[in-house]
Amino acid sequence: MYLGKLLRLRHTLAFRLTVWYAGIFILSSFGGFLVFYLMNISLIQEATDQELLNERTEFATLLKSQGIDAVKTAAQLEAESEGVDRMFYRVLTLSGKLLCTSDMSSWGNLAVDSATLQGLSGGTGYLLETMAMPEHQYDTRILYALIGPETVLQIGLSLEENAQFLKKFQRLFIVIIAAIAVFAGLIGWFLARRAVLGVEDVTRTARHISEGALEKRVPVKSRGDEIEQLATTFNSMLDRIQTLVIGMREMTDNIAHDLKTPITRVRGVAEMTLTTGKSIEDYRGMAANTIEECDRLLQMIRTMLDISEAEAGVVKLDIEETDICQVICEACELFEPIAEDKGIDIVHRLPPTCLIRADTQRLQRMIANLLDNALKYTEREGTVSIAANGDRHQILISVHDTGIGISKDDLPHIFDRFYRCDLSRSEPGVGLGLSLALAIARAHGGNITAESCVGKGSTFTISLPRAPLSH
Ligand code: ADP
Fold first, then answer.
1. CA 195 to CA 265: how far, in whole Å?
2. Model confidence pLDDT, tens digit, residues 275-305
3. Which DSSP symbol is given to 221?
4. Which of 8, 49, 169, 458 is 20 to 30 Å from the Cα of 217, by its Cα?
5. Does ligand 1 lie within 6 Å of residue 55's CB atom?
6. pLDDT class for 313, splitting at 50, 70, 90?
7. Is 35 a residue whose pLDDT tops 90?
8. CA of 77: how far to CAs of 64, 144, 250, 310, in Å?
9. This model's pTM is above 0.70
């Protein structure tokens, strides 16, 4: 079971981040140590060479001041004090004749190359070389140096100490790299876990939501990092989805409700005619009633489809240059007979022209809906006034009436589909006119706002950009 868990862990982002982090950390530490190690090797070698060259200076001074016998004695004594298996001293003539030697029992028969000795006369007067001795496990550093005109000093120094030191260094190096690997792994795992924790929150929330908890949100920790941005974006996407889902639920409820009433009515009339209808006239009446109700239903369904299309942005606007004043005048003329019937005055205050790039037919529909409402919800002898004005960027059209008004509680909902205020229930309508008007305004990149006072009247203001945004 644990093995399975471990194998699954292999594919996680946290694991991969940890491996990367630890890998980079270990490699850079390794690089740093390697440079340090190589520098140490060269420093140790320099120190060894310097030690041998100091000996040469001392012996040269001794030869000059006290003669060859003192040099011979000093060579013996030095070798004994340093350890005869660690160092050897030999004094030779330039032709290779051995003048004196320390105890060479642990160094074997060390031949002297006459070419090397001859080579000393020119240049620096000394030569350093590293040799592998069959009797010794470690290499030996050998100095040949002229200490007098014909006298050569040969010193051999076992490099065992240096090798031991470097071995210790290597062991320490391995221990430290192992510790760094563990440390880097732990730190890497901690950092990676911290980094992906936010992603896990998002995943967990998404899982809960897919199980049905649409109200769940990702906790946002104010860290200001990418994960916070992801959480905030994810939450606002969820808000939007939730609003849409609630809207759709409400709309389905409303549709079911609004279709139920007329269908029940049609069915009732049909049933009644079937059971009590006697003459052909009764059946004609039923057919006419059915057609009328069906037309109403079809009109409602068409309007709903128009709203959905406009809201979803799939509607293709037929954009052209339009004079909004002309559209308003035509709408006023269209509604004049209804206004006259109710004794309502339609007043318009318009500039001579007001050009805009828009879909003329949809503008007509939007303005007609607002005018229709204004006339519908205004008592006899009232006034409906419509005005238009604009600047370089946008045009404002206001439709004002002295009608029944809208209460403060209803005002925020009047643009919702199927919403009807209690005050206006006596008037015909299904509650889709304002939703459609707003959807058309928004499809043009504009908006509609409403202000109202119960018993005094309402004002609807349409704002439209001179040219729609994306068409
Ligand atoms: P309806 O078909 O009911 O008129 P609308 O979507 O056009 O549907 O309007 C929604 C509701 O807003 C109306 O039922 C009405 O209560 C209210 N309303 C709209 N315009 C006015 C207005 N000018 N005066 C008063 N109430 C209004």
1. 63
2. 987 889 989 988 999 998 899 889 888 888 8
3. P
4. 8
5. no
6. low
7. yes
8. 19, 19, 110, 109
9. no
Please indicate whether residue 432, judged by its CB atom, sits closer than 6 Å to ligand 1: yes
- Name beta bridge partners: 388: 397
Radius of gyration of the chain from its Cα atoms, rounded to whole angstroms:
51
| Amino acid present at 255 | I
> How far, CA to CA in Å, does 32 sit from each of 19, 40, 170, 173?
20, 12, 14, 11
Token pair recorded at residue 402: 């002295």
Contacts of 42 (CB under 8 A, 6+ apart): none
Report CA 38 to chain centroid distance, whole Å: 43
Rounded to the nearest 5 percent, the helix, strand and coil shares of the chain are: 60, 15, 25
Identity of the residue numbered 193: R
- For a mutational test of ligand 1's pocket, the pick from 409, 424, 435, 448, i.e. the residue with the most ligand atoms closer than 8 A to its C-beta, is 424
Task: Identify whether the C-beta of residue 332 lies closer than 8 Å to the C-beta of residue 287.
Answer: no
What is the Cα–Cα distance from 459 to 403, expressed in whole angstroms? 10
* Per-residue pLDDT tens over the stretch 354-409: 899 999 999 999 999 999 999 999 998 899 999 999 888 899 999 999 999 999 99
Instruction: Count the Cβ atoms, other than its own, within 10 Å of residue 422.
Output: 9
Band (pLDDT 50/70/90 cuts) for residue 55 is very high
Count of C-beta atoms within a 10 Å radius of residue 306: 18
**CB-ligand 1 contact for 87 (6 Å cutoff):** no
Strand arrangement of the beta sheet that strand 383-390 belongs to: 345-349, 383-390, 394-401, 457-465, 447-453
CB distance 424 to ligand 1 below 6 Å: yes
Distance linking the first and last C-alpha atoms of the chain = 60
Instruction: Report the alpha-carbon distance of residue 90 to residue 110 in Å, rounded.
Output: 11
Which atom of ligand 1 is closest in space to residue 369's alpha carbon? 7
Residue 411 banded pLDDT, cuts 50, 70, 90:
very high
User: CA of 359: how far to CAs of 273, 352, 408, in Å?
Assistant: 46, 20, 33
Which residue type does 415 have? F
- Identify residue 254 by its one-letter amino acid code: N
